[in-house]
Write a structure and sequence with these properties.
Length: 191
């Protein structure tokens, strides 16, 4: 597929060139695809190829982990997004929905300290451990070596998704936006 040609679509190019990073745009979810969401912008022209002039990549949909974009938005839903950049190859406005909500991570990181015990919910099992939701929209990793008791080969031997789990915060990395957790370090009387 070749790049969109500005000369063939002057109305589209004129609209996109006037947008400024950080500008707030409203529209309607036109289509959900595995790679992102197309948005028909209120003030924008129709796109000659895609279902909408606006596009939200999967990472820009939400601060919260999700499996499918349809968990965050649905076709026909009205949304407000922040304009990120003009994608000249596809002739579309790259947008962010998550930019319209506060990032929960800094607030969480400010409110916890290493060694603090938290009661969380197992959100996802991975071969090397489990992700535990320790606050709304915040998950941390308990590596297999940080499980309490006898060593295990896989997390399924010990826990299932949805179970409650007491963990100790061992670190919160603001740059990487990661939380390290340990079940092994939870005092025995609190497990």
């Amino acid at each position: 597929m070749s790049a969109m040609n500005a000369a063939e679509h002057p109305e589209l190019w004129s609209f996109l060139e006037l947008l400024k990073p950080g500008q707030v745009l409203a529209g309607t979810v036109a289509a959900i695809r595995p790679f992102g969401v197309f948005v028909a912008l209120d003030d924008g022209p129709r796109h000659p190829v895609h279902p909408g002039v606006g596009f939200i990549g999967i990472p820009e949909l939400s601060w919260v982990r999700f499996e499918d974009a349809s968990e965050i938005v649905e076709v026909g839903q009205r949304i407000v997004c922040e304009f990120l950049q003009f994608d000249t190859w596809n002739g579309e406005a790259r947008l962010s929905l998550r930019a319209m909500q506060p990032d929960p991570f800094p607030l969480f990181a400010d409110g916890v300290a290493a060694g603090q015990v938290i009661d969380g919910r197992v959100a996802k099992l991975v071969p090397f451990g489990v992700f535990v939701e320790v606050a709304d929209g915040i998950e941390g990793l308990v590596h297999l070596r940080e499980f309490a008791g006898e060593p295990v080969e896989s997390p399924e031997e010990r826990v299932q998704v949805g179970e409650r789990m007491k963990v100790v915060i061992t670190g919160a990395d603001r740059v990487r936006r990661t939380v390290s957790l340990s079940q092994r370090q939870v005092p025995a009387d609190l497990r």
